User: Fold this.
Amino acid sequence: MGNHEPDDFSISRATQIETPQVDLPVPLNGRNYCGELDIRIDRAGKWYYNGSPIGRKVMVGLFASLLMRAKDGVYWLVSPTEMGRIDVEDAPFVITHMSTKNQGEDQTIEFCTNVDISVTVSEDCPILMKPSPLTGEMTPYVVMPGNIDARIERAVYYDLVDLGVIMDFGDEEIFGVWSSCSFFPLGSLQDTDA
Assistant:
């Protein structure tokens, strides 16, 4: 068919690789260590296998359900029988939709990713502004369960900014949003000129 997508759900490689000293997301516990898998997620959240886009959303969803992140920030696919590293250019998921309930401090923000995973912004799933690994520019992310980042796409970020309020934290005014009774900073309004 000319399609390079995997025909089964195995993430293994042809040869078994000896386990090096790496930061694993979970103990091997009998799983085969597969080393570096030929799976890549680009900045737009598009998944590739053997250099070709994975077109079947159900396959991307399956791989996404196996995704874990080690403490060193490396992403892995972990099945009950195998484990291997994958290449992620920025974040594995992109926030493409946002909905809200209530207003002010009682507001709840819910995001949806490009692979239809929903997450409610809370202390357990915070919004963070941090440098993009590609550009170094401050970029908004939400931290999903398992410490997995999802980059908030520009259009959604603009909608988020529309919900923003200014909070006075002593000598600094912070612009941010409320969700699940917690305040999430999007930036300081303090003059940074020195």
The mean pLDDT is 88. The chain has two domains: 1-89, 93-188. Residues 57-65 form the longest helix (9 residues). The chain has two helices and 15 strands.
